[in-house]
Amino acid sequence: MRLLLTTAFPLLFANSMIFLKGWIDTIMVGAFLDETAVGVYDIAFKLAALIIIPLGAVNSIAAPKFAELRQDRMRLQRFIGYATTAAALCAAPLFLLLVAAPGFVLGLFGPEYVQGATALRIIAAGMLASALAGSVGVFLQMTGRQVAYQVISFIVVVASIALSYVLIPRFGINGAAVATSASLILFNVAAVAYVWVTERIATVWTPGLLRSVWFSEPEVSP
């Protein structure tokens, strides 16, 4: 029971922080701006979040694999290469669409939403960073690094609140978008760096990773 609690509590706390992070920006937009701004920002955020849907699908497959391959560093790194590449390649077209034609996409919801084009671009950049970082959050959770995941999540939430408090009154929904994107990038940079320093495992996508995946044998479960 004690082992269960010491393992579960950091995960519960960290996931609570991530859940809170998903609402902080919208709540603070509502606190500082009007209802129209909240609606525009909410649509921009939800559209940008489409970029990480492929990552969510990859995470559902990767989680048990991380635990299974924990003691086999070579196979683990190879599997992470495939997982990260899949998430990145699926996310890239969505990112390009939202960045190239944000006004068109937002205009599908009504002309009043087009004003969120800049915010959409900014948030999309943060979402792309999450996709390129791969399943780093799941990796921390599935390999006994729950406390690190907890600490990083807490720091990111505090940073998001501080940035939102400073930027939203001055820059409106674009300030909220900067706070959101910056917090996403901060989380992924910190998590990727931690995994590299402690495990010597690279989860982030690079062109070199694509080449290594393309010319290597696929990872097949026995």
Number of helices: 10
**Largest β-sheet summary:** none
Distance between the termini: 33 Å
| Proportion of strand residues | under 5%
Number of domains: 1
Tally of strands:
0
Order of SSEs: HHHHHHHHHH
Shape descriptor reads globular
Coarse structural class: mainly alpha
Helix content: over 70%
Low-confidence stretches: none
| Rg, alpha carbons | 18 Å
What value does the average pLDDT take?
86
Structural description of this entry:
The chain is mainly α. It has one domain. It is 82% helix and 0% strand. Helix 6 runs parallel beside helix 9. The radius of gyration is 18 Å and the shape is globular.
Short description:
The protein is mainly α. The protein is built from ten helices and no strands.
Chain-wise SSE layout:
Layout: H1 2-32, H2 35-49, H3 53-68, H4 73-100, H5 102-107, H6 117-133, H7 136-142, H8 146-171, H9 173-199, H10 207-214
Helix pairs in contact: 1-2, 1-8, 1-9, 2-6, 3-4, 4-6, 4-10, 6-9, 7-9, 8-9
What descriptors fit this protein?
82% helix; mainly alpha; single chain; 222 residues
